């Protein structure tokens, strides 16, 4: 997929893998809609994760957006076929570098507040969207992981930028180097998410928070978001280097072994660890 094959993303109709509903006045519910693959992000969805926020910002009828996943998962990370192409095709790697950067840039500079309702598993690009939201609500049995190290590449995307600010450097280093999973209760305890609730309350709680934000002063809420995100924007050099090293890793032998290990459901035997 190239830029030439994609629509201009000027309206909600241009999105293939995001579904839109209006649960209440001034709130837009965005549902990641590839439930047959646990909402894993292929090239198209990865691009849509970055493009949706400008469309929302241009929609005067929306004050707050809520994003969640259809079915049993928020998003199971990058589609394995897409990730595998990144290990063999330079242009695919360049395109995913562009899109991974755009997801972070667009969410941090978007005007309107975003609430994530994290149901089931959240990994990879989907995790970036979940944690970059301004308010995050996670189910007790939901699980999240920055799985880059599991694939044999550096923790890029959002993680090096965001995790130290949310849960502190010591925990961030541990979870990003081990790729261990974190459940909802632990994620709330260490500060990775705003709130942990019973699984069946994830979306209702997220929508209630969205309604509360939508009822407030738009300028006050939006400008507060803008100011708070300056903390993350100051770490832009950290993000840039982490993303570049991640993409470099996809062109090396460890990533090839990491993907094969995932396919075969076995522990990886990384060449660099032999």
Key terms:
4-stranded mixed sheet; 10 strands; 2-enoyl-CoA Hydratase, Chain A, domain 1; 13 helices; 274 residues; 6-stranded mixed sheet; alpha/beta; single chain
Task: Summarize the SSE layout with pairings.
Elements: E1 18-24, E2 27-32, H1 43-58, E3 64-69, E4 75-76, H2 80-86, H3 90-109, E5 114-118, E6 121-123, H4 124-132, E7 135-139, E8 143-145, H5 148-151, H6 159-167, H7 169-178, E9 182-183, H8 184-190, E10 195-197, H9 202-214, H10 218-228, H11 230-233, H12 236-250, H13 253-264
Parallel strand pairs: 2-3, 3-5, 4-6, 5-7, 6-8, 7-10
Antiparallel strand pairs: 1-2, 8-9
Helix pairs in contact: 1-3, 3-4, 3-12, 6-7
Q: Care to describe what's here?
A:
The chain is of the alpha/beta class and 274 residues long. The protein has a single domain, classed as Alpha-Beta Complex (2-enoyl-CoA Hydratase, Chain A, domain 1), CATH 3.90.226. Helix content is 50%, strand content 15%. It has 13 helices and ten strands. It has a six-stranded mixed sheet, sandwiched between helices. β2, α1 and β3 form a beta-alpha-beta unit. α1 runs parallel beside α3, α3 packs antiparallel against α12 and α6 packs across α7. The chain is globular. The model has no long low-confidence stretch (mean pLDDT 95).
